[in-house]
Model the fold of this input.
Amino acid sequence: MDKNTVIGFVLIGLVLFLFTWLNRPTPEQIEARRMQDSIARVEQVKQLEEQLQAQKRENVSDEETQAVPDSLKAAQRESLFGVFASSVEGTEETTSLENEHLEIRISNKGGRVSYVRLKDYTTHDSLPLILFEGDESKLNFTLITATNRVINTADLFFTPVKGNDPHTLTMRLNAGENSYLDFVYTLQPDDYILQYSIRGQGLNGVLSPGTNTIDISWEQLVRQQEKGRKYEDQYTGLFYKFVADDVENLSQSGNDSERITNRLRWIAYKDKFFSTILISDDGFEATTFDSKQLPDGNYLKHFSTLTSLPFDLQGKEASGLRYYFGPNHYSLLKNYDKGVAAGEELDMEKLVPLGASVFRWVNQYFIFPIFGLLCRYISSMGLIIFLLTVIVKSILFPLTYKGYMSSAKMRVLRPQVEAINAKYPGQDKALDRQKATMELYSRAGASPMSGCLPMLLQMPILIALYMLFPASIELRQQSFLWAQDLSAYDAVISWTTYVPLVSPYFGNHISLFCLLMALVNVFYTKFNMDMTNTGQQQMPGMKLMMYMMPVMLFVFLNQSASGLSYYYFISTLISILQTYAFRFFINEDKLLAKLEANKKKPAKKSGFMKRLEDMQKQQQDVLRKQQDQSKKKR
Done:
């Protein structure tokens, strides 16, 4: 294999290596996680102690309150909560709204959504997929009364009001005679959107006259739903969209917080495959975000948001909100923008991580249309990936053929290159040797760079697929051969012992598709190096480095989606078959005769070859000057 082709392979390996290496936690992050674990344990102990103290105080308080007259307790509530005093006490109950996709329970305490189950999905261990339950999610509105009391809706009990529409539920917070605050929920059939509007009635004189917004506090614990915690955590984050602008997010690799002054259209608490999105019709204002990673347990992260929402005190206009509880399915999320005016799109499909810039473009306009077409007619996801691989390799066939022809030209010129090496032996004649070799290639019409360029042009597709497969919900819980879930690793050997430097990066298992992919790549590396040996001297250690690339891929992809390893496995097998076919059908004797005929034609130097020769002449001049200076010193 000639030096330039090797450099091309090394560059490809470096791109993959750097991409994965940059996602590794730094030593500071590892230490920070250890500190978080220690702090978490301290906090747990502290919370237990506080709970015990609270229980003791409650026991004492119960004994004391038994002696307090009801009239005095009512007066105390009136003093603290004013017109909302009648809503302070109650028993927490829930009311359900359901359709084909969702089961939602709304609690009368706080009038909030307290339970969401996605009916179409289960967890990795076949349990019902619940986004959150009970206090795992909290939504609170802060109200300022006309008497400057601060009231939190989370502390108050609402009254459920069922109308004639079975899809609609109203939670009403009484605020005196003919005065109330309504939270209206509507769940239409066959939808993942829960309509949520807030409207006041007779609140003039109840709330502060200057009220034109209400403050919102929203927090949620994100459950672990998938088998591989590492990669699920990597794709879990807090995202938000600016009004008429792009989608941004907090760091997904560690704790992060941010204050946003611009108006936001929606806020999303996103898991690897599912999201809870709160959408505002009028926009959120003055928002503060906080994201915290959680130590080992049933939860991945804790998200919290402080923001405000426009509110009409007169009750003429409702504050419009929407919840999206559902999968991060590209086509489904994209459909919510159908018929929407330009600039008003939600862009929720950007929650699906397809890569940035050119990689997202490749997935969005090239891979997804093919993938979607295959999914429409074929049920086996393993067969779909196989056909997708064949289609992609077929489209790239011209580039592959051009790369092979470039290496074939240099291979048939190998005896002449070896003759040049014999004519200019030693390191002191390296420039003469290189110049003569390049002149040979130029006269024969062979270019080392023409073999590297096709491989580099294929890189955007390879990296785009690297981004696509682990985050594609279409692969989730889809089995193929021995792999039970193509969106997770397919462990055939597992162990529980923690091994330093191995468990954090490689995992406590061996994935079979990943192992097969690595073995096939080792064979392909040897096969390709033998096929593309041009007789040029290789850099020391380059051969070992080429064999290290499949090993590196094995380490990096062992915990990733088995569907991705399966794709690379099939793709490499097809590359081997293509190379064998090229070798069988291409007559190298005729190719050599054509190159010899090219030598007799008038030389036409390309701009690249001219610049390369100029650089060689400059290097030769520098080398001669250095040699002259060393002779003078002697």
Observations:
- The domain at 93-352 is CATH 2.70.98.90 (Beta-galactosidase; Chain A, domain 5).
- Residues 30-35, 37-42, 59-65 have pLDDT under 50 and may be disordered.
- The radius of gyration is 33 Å.
- The CA atoms of residues 5 and 452 lie 6 Å apart.
